[in-house]
What does this fold into?
Amino acid sequence: MHPRAGQSAEPADLIDIKALEDAYYDIKPDPSHPSQRVVFGTSGHRGSSLDGAFNEQHIIAITAAIIEYRRDQGIDGPLFLGRDTHGLSLPAWRTAVEVLGAAGVELRVDARDSFTPTPALSHAILVANGSTAPTGLRTAGPGLADGIVITPSHNPPRDGGFKYNPPDGGPADTAATAWIARRANAILAEGMVDSVRRVPVEKALALDSTKPYEFLSIYVNDLVNVVNLDAIRSAGVRIGADPLGGASVDYWGAIGERYRLDLTVINDRVDPAWRFMTLDWDGKIRMDPSSPFAMASLRSVLEHPGVDGRPAYDIATGNDADSDRHGIVTPDGGLMNPNHYLAACVAYLFSGNRPGWSDDAAVGKTVVSSSLIDRVADNEGRALMEVPVGFKWFVPGLLNGSVAFGGEESAGASFLRLDGRVWTTDKDGIILALLASEILAVGGISPSRVYDELADRFGRSWYARVDAPADRGQKAALAALDASQVTDTELAGDPITARLVKAPGNDAPIGGLKVETERAWFAARPSGTEDVYKIYAESFVSAEHLSQVQAAAKDLVDAVIAT
It folds into this structure.
């Protein structure tokens, strides 16, 4: 823990934006160096220009690869292009526009020449492909739309990110990202970057093939079909929304005005250095709305009563830089743990508050999310779909309505429209933030109180994630683990009931190991960027028992990957 975690950023903490931008253009990545190659994780390619990991040549190569991928897949409709507020997002956006324009791609850019949240881009793709049409959504055939969003999500200001969303509107699957990364790296390694056609950005934006798209108004006007905004307005819920300097900065004001909500945008500043942020646990500036340290300023807003002696807001919310994550703060519970809020959402949505949803629609969660969600889903008579880490695994179910709600422990989720049709197939931090106010408006108690009642009924748990050292070979061994290699019969004194290397919900490899007992579980996964593996663990006994589970998990995994 950094000694200044939760404290305001100081000048020495800030990134030099000009140096960051200069490095984007000046540094030429070495494709033979692993850290300077194109690597797509669960949320696209990320890195910093200062490290030679996110530079103009990367974006030229990735964009050119996506153009080839689209042609190979027969995708010939409009490509929606969005960006967040990170310092590298605008330079990368300009580069992508130049390459896409030269290739004659039917490009759609923000009509306000401003920022685009990830959920608004996913929404645009699905609407273009017929999600709101009487004939229904298309995911095959001519004229299909797809998109690119330029964002490293909640990462520090020095980072950039580049993510492709295919016609299903969600994060690209592993087959697509592997193809795109392989082709982009070939373009870099073979020195073909300079031969990729480009036109100046001003000319590309003036082409007939490039048209403006009203991301904000189309998304905001459609919100009434996914969240009960009438109930929020009628109940007079006082909302404080903090975009944390991210892409939702103009969206929240528009939402309040369009639906006549008692909504205040707490902070409307946009600064690529994020000088107004408080430092995260490790002393870095990170726009993570699930972190109590990054959210220290917003938390303090509810700790001080207003002029009438009440807290200033009934619900306060935060979003990360591309608005695909949410943070919920209540006067009676403070910043909610993401797992606790997901459980509260499931309990509310599936207890008669979405009559338009199919009775057979399942609850989706990742293998590292709280088991409290399992218990709540079972109580509501709903099937549970447990998938590997990555929101892409929820996409098919959200598209066809067989999964009504999909959530990740890292504060990312989405759910269906009121009528049971797809809303977004990427995480939507805006509707999850609004849902907190709907829960209060309809149920009369805060999401924090909902969670407390669930914990009293189904058991209170202790959950944490820690990292353990592992070299590249050990990480590879963990990712390729077979359940038969785990011979232990007990975990922290309890009999082991399951050893999983594939997710129960779709039989897809989890890229690691999950071990369960009646009272606890842990999951271990290798990091894609650091020489560590991650241990997620939960105990329904005590904090001390959680520590025992974590220690036993490390011993078990270390023993297996060392052989």
User: Anything to note?
Assistant: The domain at 462-562 is CATH 3.30.310.50 (TATA-Binding Protein).
